[in-house]
Design a protein that fits this description.
The chain folds into 2 domains: 56 residues, no CATH class; 47 residues, no CATH class. It is built from 2 helices and 2 strands; from the N terminus they run ααββ. It has a two-stranded antiparallel sheet. The chain is globular and about 45 Å long.
Length: 104
Amino acid sequence: DVPPIGQLAFRNWGRYKNAHADEILEKIPTITDPSELKSLYKELDGIYMKDIPIIVLEYRPWLFYEYNTSHWTNFPNEDNPYAPPQICTDGAGIRALYKIEPVK
């Protein structure tokens, strides 16, 4: 839940709500079939494009992100694109937290 307007919100500052988008977001981490994931992300993208809950002010290309493999491996990247290569504590990037592995 997002706090009401006037109270501090640490996420979803615009207080966007869409029950169908929430259902898709809950389903995505449980899916392993790439074609089904593509379909779900396409549907989620369609909701985003229709509702326009935010206006992005910064462009971040796919290869912009950095990571350090001194202690952890299997980060998403161009050769291993299982999740968006973004901050792993937000949005779809959270999936990376379940896939990265400690260095042996």
